[in-house]
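Quick one: structure for this chain?
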Amino acid sequence: MTDERPRHLLHAFSTFQLGGPQARFTELANALGPMFRHTIVAMDNRFDAGERLHASVNWTPMPLPVIKGGALANRGSFRQVLRKLQPDLLMSYNWGAIEWAAANLPSVCPQIHVEDGFGPEEARQQLPRRVWMRRALLGWARVPLVVISRQLEQTALQVWKLPASRVRFIANGVNVPDMLEPRRRDLDEGVIRIGTVAGLRPEKNIARLVKAFARLHARQPARLIIVGSGPLQADLQQLAQALGVADDVEFTGYLSDPATRLKDFDLFALSSDTEQQPIALLEAMALGMPVVATAVGDVPHILAGVSPGNTCPPDDEAFAQLMLRVAQARADWAGWSTKGHAVVSQSFAKSAMLAQWQALWSGLPSAAASV
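Got it. Here's what it folds into:
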């Protein structure tokens, strides 16, 4: 007689507001359904991303008292949670939840740590204290690490000095239509709709996008659609007002499914100071959308065979010049669309991502051995 009990996973996030890690988790949980039971903890006790979870997903948000800025001050209370719940697997995500790796030392339960990228404080270089903490809590404790970009993989091996046997790269995956639907090419009498999907936080540098858009807007009819919310929204709205483009800049605010607005874009723009493997960019390419982006994380590698000239350093002037040039290169958009769809279909399909994560969550020996 087999044990039909769903495996219990405890997921530790810095926040469960919608972002890249949370979007990927909800995609996985929705697809894998009742095979797993999920408990979610968030260092800020925000659980907004739960709106994306289907009714069939067995999940529980678990608010906890958290000492802010206390280094490892929460280790004892978090360890009590682990001992009480005894999850089959602890999943911790990014630096913001690194205290859970400390709480699980010595090991209470199996653990996998996931790294998706860095905040603005580590956009340019790694902070020495965090490097040593990662080496200690992940390396010395022999915690398997999953990274979602090749750049992060190199950081884990070369900077954090983690052994290759415990570092695994799993690409993000998105839904890819079998065939591209015809894109709107009349551009509404010449109006180019530029869009982005991002949290309005410093590292996303949406101000860079608004400034570049203002330059383009002065030359031709254009509209900017900014999908997402965050602490900088009021500042960005004031910037659009000051630049005289507020009437043609739409701030949608928080959307539970931001990908639904992608169909309204003619050109996808990514203006971040730091990224790894942005899901929204992959979703746009899957729909056959041309892309303009800063050369951060794996973005140059993703676009290498699609439109390698459509990236630039994370610099305001360089980004503005790039957007102006791409907007005038509409004859090339159809080719970029076809190539982008093919790249995402071959390397970033959701089915491949699901299979790899399902094996990890299930604790299969083959999956564990490869991390």
